[in-house]
Amino acid sequence: MNVSTWAVRKEDRLARFMRIRRQTLALCAGLSAEDLMVQSMPDASPGKWHLAHPTWFFEQFVLGRDPAYRAPNPEWHYQFNSYYESVGPMHARPKRGLLSRPSLDEVRDYRARIDEAVGELMERGVDDELAARIELGLQHEQQHQELMLTDIKHAFWCQPLHPVYREALPAESSAASLLMHFMQGREGVVEIGHDDSQRFAYDNETPRHHTWLSAHALAHRLVTNSEYLAFVRDGGYHDAGLWLSDGWATVQREGWQRPMYWQEDLASEFTLSGICALDPQAPVCHISYFEADAFARWAGARLPTEAEWEDAARGLQIAGNFQESQRFHPVAAPRGEGMLQMYGDVWEWTASPYVSYPGFKPLPGALGEYNGKFMNGQWVLRGGSCATPQDHIRASYRNFFPPHARWQFSGIRLGQDR
Amino acid sequence: MNVSTWAVRKEDRLARFMRIRRQTLALCAGLSAEDLMVQSMPDASPGKWHLAHPTWFFEQFVLGRDPAYRAPNPEWHYQFNSYYESVGPMHARPKRGLLSRPSLDEVRDYRARIDEAVGELMERGVDDELAARIELGLQHEQQHQELMLTDIKHAFWCQPLHPVYREALPAESSAASLLMHFMQGREGVVEIGHDDSQRFAYDNETPRHHTWLSAHALAHRLVTNSEYLAFVRDGGYHDAGLWLSDGWATVQREGWQRPMYWQEDLASEFTLSGICALDPQAPVCHISYFEADAFARWAGARLPTEAEWEDAARGLQIAGNFQESQRFHPVAAPRGEGMLQMYGDVWEWTASPYVSYPGFKPLPGALGEYNGKFMNGQWVLRGGSCATPQDHIRASYRNFFPPHARWQFSGIRLGQDR
Amino acid sequence: MNVSTWAVRKEDRLARFMRIRRQTLALCAGLSAEDLMVQSMPDASPGKWHLAHPTWFFEQFVLGRDPAYRAPNPEWHYQFNSYYESVGPMHARPKRGLLSRPSLDEVRDYRARIDEAVGELMERGVDDELAARIELGLQHEQQHQELMLTDIKHAFWCQPLHPVYREALPAESSAASLLMHFMQGREGVVEIGHDDSQRFAYDNETPRHHTWLSAHALAHRLVTNSEYLAFVRDGGYHDAGLWLSDGWATVQREGWQRPMYWQEDLASEFTLSGICALDPQAPVCHISYFEADAFARWAGARLPTEAEWEDAARGLQIAGNFQESQRFHPVAAPRGEGMLQMYGDVWEWTASPYVSYPGFKPLPGALGEYNGKFMNGQWVLRGGSCATPQDHIRASYRNFFPPHARWQFSGIRLGQDR
Amino acid sequence: MNVSTWAVRKEDRLARFMRIRRQTLALCAGLSAEDLMVQSMPDASPGKWHLAHPTWFFEQFVLGRDPAYRAPNPEWHYQFNSYYESVGPMHARPKRGLLSRPSLDEVRDYRARIDEAVGELMERGVDDELAARIELGLQHEQQHQELMLTDIKHAFWCQPLHPVYREALPAESSAASLLMHFMQGREGVVEIGHDDSQRFAYDNETPRHHTWLSAHALAHRLVTNSEYLAFVRDGGYHDAGLWLSDGWATVQREGWQRPMYWQEDLASEFTLSGICALDPQAPVCHISYFEADAFARWAGARLPTEAEWEDAARGLQIAGNFQESQRFHPVAAPRGEGMLQMYGDVWEWTASPYVSYPGFKPLPGALGEYNGKFMNGQWVLRGGSCATPQDHIRASYRNFFPPHARWQFSGIRLGQDR
């Protein structure tokens, strides 16, 4: 992890550390200790755990590098380790919702103590390796910010009272419907993967490498609720021929009839601001890979590959509807030229299984468990969402989820062979 | 439910109502909102739910009898109904741990409002039917007091930090070992079932009826930890011949090796006061029916029937180690004559499946769902435990749990054919 | 097992042995090796296994008593042991359908060899213990005859081609509808349990003992298809209030809408003679305990206890529609006085959980695993069915199945408190 | 499916049809109707089903093209359809083992009738489309030949008696150990996919397309039993760090300790010739993707991508240990130059998830369900095995199985980045 150059930023490193750590707490405003206890399914975690685990990460991988370091609460490590087998055994993931102890107040204190310790370390000065680990910890923290939002959304949806997380912002004047068109992509050998040694990237975005793009085109904007509704009304959930075999089995077993948070009336949906009317021009959201793939087939199209997506994103400005907008929900595409909504709003499912790039080397030691060991049975998503911090995303960023996962802010961009 | 006579008590009815309701809250002292959120298994419920559900019960069955009654939070009823199908649909039992809303504070307010409303009603005067329903509600509340204790014990045991609920009281000087002996019971036709129309009983304790007792004897005290340890050390958990077929399957599937809360060292156990040394003279506890039955077979004895137990309890004073002792753990038998430990310490598994008495009539309406519909696949337990309020138990009281249940304070008294 | 007196029979013992063993094979006429391979659910066994296992039983418990005995195929014992843990480990029950080896022909040879060996033994003369074991083996064989019929029925029902086992016999002129009436039973102390030391009984029918019967009456005939149809049409399967809690959960989980083999038209049913019109006067069949109990509640009645049933059966002739009729299906009650259809047609669910009688002693050794270890979670059925050999049944006979079991020929007789 | 050119072969089409169809039956020699009934797990099918289903395929897709065609047994189609949703509903896959009807004899007759009908059709002359469908049916038949062998192996392994399918052939003089070496592959743009319009290929092998190969090398032979044994002995199954996360979960859940058919002694294995000594020089076999991937990581290598494999196979002669050798088991690599064992012996797991090639078009209509709908959660295998007919395999052939599948003849070739 040669990240000596990460130090070269406009923002002061320590300020950045404190800003990101504070933002996590800011996202908890209005949530009670009880709200932050709920684990609504094995894939989700309680908010309190999202506060504690990245803190443990800093303790384990930053502070713990100093052999003289003494953890204030070593007995907590077992329950705040997520999946680092080489660090030690851990509490079973589906049972994180049972952890009433330590309390939320104790976890807040824990955060403060670790922040202070890391802050002191940074003020004393850190070597490149430590700087890199701190940066990794911050990126990791930001991932958990997004997960905290998607998990609390699911937790509130599972409750009969359907609580509101944040009051809805005033609606922007809804864009008139924009006809979708396809923009030609490059054919031939291209390079993808992380290319800027000045900036952070996860190991799974490296090494930069050649790949061949076939002739293709990508839709200039995301698929909207009204387009997806047409699929639903056309019987999309009842036509086996549109689905992958595993997808069809999931539709049958789970009784899927519409996107996850859509209400039965097909006119409203559950959001972090409660149940709201469905905006026909907004991107469809909380779609699994199976649904994205079936919709694309129904539409006579396909999903983009991750290389096609990344090549199309080359040179685009990273702007859009991110966590910072405080909307926590996708919005209609703005008027504009070129590829729209490539960043923000919703993660875009690609037709690429999540596997290693040629020549991939995981980080050494326990940090090597961060990404590489999940390279089975998942599909890549690109572009970030309305729950992603803007400075967390980049063209080479590879998110990944299993094909049935629906609780992330995930949607659809179409692609075509040419 | 002819309970006009229940009004005739020394204790003033309203004071009794307030005392029992307050006691439930008193049991929560020292537990946080987070502690009261945990649902550690589908059979258990969060503490907050135990606070809310009996309150709903008063609202539904007492206040709701007045057609003019307006519930302050009708939208809560769905999630605080337990299993009364005729009242309406309900939140799935295994998902009670997801309910962060209403908050603990709101639930406390809810309790206060309903207490006030019931209090006013009582002051205005209640008819017999209403008096009976209030009494049923209080008995129901007491049951949930006990469940709250057993559920929080399980919740704390499931957490890696093993919190302490209450500091242990100073140990009483442990009794010297008392040799177990058997006391002859009556043979012939006896009457069992509730017999005192002046006092409350559940419908399942009625009607009083004849039954035949074969020649038999019952042990004068409960089986102790040291006696059970001998069974463990003798390979009891590895000898299929000692177990019911379903019990053996459970032992294999669950990997049972010892009582639920015993530690691997066979010398200590988890209690509501944390991990403590095992008292050899104290009654063995947290035993399933399968284990009680296997132990009895190993010991060349059997479990008592519920009729044998009830006949033996006839005339005994209701005294022992109850909730009021604040020990929340069974203790060694006192020195004494006659049948010891019949009440309190641990519920005693009987050899009687939980079925209706001849001529049984459930309560009319939704209250009829209280007991009768559970008469399948469960076994009767008698005598109350260290978590039972003393004024809740009586000779005819029938508790019931499925044969694999271990998280109640349940233990063993032996019986014999003569 | 003092059965010396069993020798005193009109029928010669050896002839009886050969007759019963031959009858098992006769029931396989028309079934192919493939038909006899099918295991359609874990509770059922393949026909070939029903041929082999009782043969193993004779080998294990009769021939094996001679220390000099050498099994022809000791390597088969593992797979033909059912549940005798003390004899040795065994093949997993749900995987009996995988056993293509030994072949059906080899199993037939096995039967012939063991029959010859037992025959020789009997000709040389057997002591009381051995005579008793042979008799137990024959009773056991007869139980497997019945299971073979119910299991092949289920196996054929699971196949899309719905094969016919035996062509239907010409219908008897269907009886005109007989109004059900209730006949008063005895109140007071009675004796039940096996009482004839001259005749065989299982250990679970002993000892004969006193019990108290409350005032009651029993229906003079079984509940018919047309009566049960009224329950279905009245929404019986949609009214939670009629069901035990576990029963309602089963109805919901399994999607029960009608008796097991009834067709969706509610006018025909699958039988061992294929799909036939439902005879309105014939007893309803393939009913679980949950359904029998719900029906009784709907009808304002209850199920009989096993003691009530046995007392009513006292003195009745054992006659009815048994295996020997070759109908393999229940038929309408004949005209007649007194209690009708007490024997044959369908097993009658009772309100009695299957537990031991006071003073029960299982058989010594491995044979003690025959009955006692199943005394949990099951309900007693009485009277035998159209699949039971006539000489297998008696007033004290206790059959038992779990409350959800439907694939046996099981039906309903109503009882009442008086 | 433009396959007009497939007609141009040396072998007469009709003779080829008959030869392949007869070979399927030849593989059943020595198997009884009972053996051919066993379904030992949901992923496997009974041999009888493997005989019937490809026959149905000819009926459905070849004979059924003639509107005048009348199926002799239309009622069988439901149970012999595998997964063609657009053709109609089908019998549940995990319940194929329940189908005692039609009998094996009836299925053999069915095969004969359909063979005769197809033969007559071919003699009258078939158009290109029909010729292509017949060829597809034959390729499909060959796939089921291989599955029949792997399924019967599993079925026999599940039986306590471990039957022998075929007596082992005399061992060839075992090769001396050949040190594994790596051979450099090409770097740059290559073409892969089916390239010979004269010969059959599945739709998933098309279109031929460009792809980029990174610098790499492939092992010149397969991984042997002795090499895999070193991994086992080194604690490979106990080191989480070697495994994908899903793989480690599988190891834990399933208790994997060694390859599927290896005995506990690590010195013998179950084969189609019964339990045999493990040949140290023979390729390790019955390895899941998870195990192949973990072994490669342990060895400091990786698995080849399917493009690397296909490029390496370019120009190699298709020769090796196939079904025709009648060994039904992999053998040690022969001495020789260049890449060894690329064809036959064992399928080679690749590092490539099974997804569509750029520009992929499934076959039209129901035949489009053949391949495309399975493109999720599976990995590509290449090269064929000892159970594959030699004329069935080619360089572009893509087999695919989920990562936990072990019952195929699947093994490991290593690759490296260069």
Automatic annotation (TrEMBL), chains A, B, C, D:
InterPro entries: CTDL_fold, DinB-like, DinB/YfiT-like, EgtB, Sulfatase_Mod_Factor_Kinase, SUMF_dom, SUMF_sf
Keywords assigned by UniProt, alphabetized: Iron, Oxidoreductase
Transmembrane segments: none
Pathway: Amino-acid biosynthesis; ergothioneine biosynthesis
Domain Sulfatase-modifying factor enzyme-like per the UniProt entry, residue ranges: 187-317, 336-414
Organism superkingdom: Bacteria
Residues covered by the DinB-like domain: 19-137
Pfam families: DinB_2 (PF12867), FGE-sulfatase (PF03781)
Protein name: Ergothioneine biosynthesis protein EgtB
Organism: Dyella flava
